[in-house]
Fold:
Amino acid sequence: MLLSDVLRHELGLTGTHVGCEHGVCGACTVLLDGRPVRSCLVFGVSVDGQDVTTVEGLTEPDGSMHPVQQAFQDCHGLQCGFCTPGFLTTIAAYLEENPEPTEDEAREAISGNLCRCTGYQNIVASVLRAAELQRGEP
Ligand code: FES
Ligand code: FES
Structure:
């Protein structure tokens, strides 16, 4: 069974969305030991012993939003929201590696995720805003 199906159908973690089912759209992205992977391309059994973080797991322990989630709210980084879980996990992992991206770097960071609604501009703004929030800037 694919990891995306394990998450959604066995564990009820429906925050992970499935779009193309062949590794193109990025909607199903989760973090595997902190690194983004397309859960529609991975067998669930193959991740035994590894940490899987879904969009549900980005939320802070006190229930508050992750800075990337907050930034998407602040910058209107979503419309229908179908693509959003994949963007959130992708960006959260990216900012761990590059906490101060330029706008061009932010565009590159999300270049593997597809969105049918937003035109990407507000998602780029959300990446930059999330980086500010993580750096503690107002
Ligand atoms: S559903 Fe996995 S990449 Fe599109
Ligand atoms: S917000 Fe609708 S697909 Fe991205």
Notes: The first strand starts at residue 29 and ends at 32. The radius of gyration is 14 Å. The helical segments are 3-10, 67-74, 84-97, 103-109, 121-134. The longest helix spans residues 84-97.
